[in-house]
């Protein structure tokens, strides 16, 4: 049975945990990389913004490659996510996707000012009648259970949630993913899992819980607040610890070697580069079955995968210490590193690595921070760095510094 259709109740061994959709992050290359670090049960594409004029006929081959010709070549399921304000426009793009997947997800939660300014994402929640008409329009055009919704608990206040939940509960959708923060909250404060629990009691379809899962301890605490759930997604927590899905399965923190870490980041860089420069070479490796199993924390597996990708991109093996990729690909490595470093020993918060001009410089600086005796590096969630990734101002951190 596909993990996307399971409805078993919350039990540690039965939980279905996926990689959340993140704008500018969860592209094909990144999804493949997460499938190698600790493989989520499913992943979601970043939202594809649909308007009257875009995309017109077809989506890019790399947008949702996992549901088309390469469908059986991955160790995770994929949920394509769309964003728009017109059910008619969304139908145009959803229809070809639905010939290859059971449902598409509709983004009603993105808090970006640009998105909200065009009345998409969480902007759809501002007026309940607009949201109701939108959901009804989707149901009329796409059909029952052909779409799911990802939303927030309100636009400015949780007081809006009961009315929004009532609208969704009466819809015939496949599932509801609830990030229990308002649009006004963005990523600050704490997600209100009591609202997620309320949704699970009100709705007849599966609820997917989202917000603040950063390690096994937080997962235990939050999932107990919504005991009816067995489906969850992780976004920022996976960026800070890409091996979090392994931690949740094994119920213990993960340690990795410094060589695994640098090789995995080099692999991430080449994946980004291949998608842009020659996606067909990457598709050939995928079709061959090279991504069906995970590298996990195994140094030999990571080295073998890196070797294959290096040969595909450069025609030869390039050691990680000499790897150089285009600026855009390296920028994505630094994006991942900016979050990941917060789970490593505190010395890795050293800003020098983020200032590296190329991957080879980054690798040299990273290995320079690793002492010879440091064979294994612990990956542990550290609350004191939350402010960096929430977008909140660092008032509390500054106050702590003054008192220390």
TrEMBL record:
CDD domains: DUS_like_FMN (cd02801). GO terms for molecular function: flavin adenine dinucleotide binding; RNA binding; tRNA dihydrouridine synthase activity. Residues 19-253 form the DUS-like FMN-binding domain. The keyword NADP applies. Keywords: Flavoprotein, FMN, NADP, Oxidoreductase, tRNA processing. SUPFAM superfamilies: FMN-linked oxidoreductases. InterPro entries: Aldolase_TIM, DUS-like_FMN-bd, tRNA_hU_synthase_CS. Its cofactor is FMN. This is DUS-like FMN-binding domain-containing protein. The lineage of its organism: Bacteria, Pseudomonadati, Bdellovibrionota, Oligoflexia, Silvanigrellales.
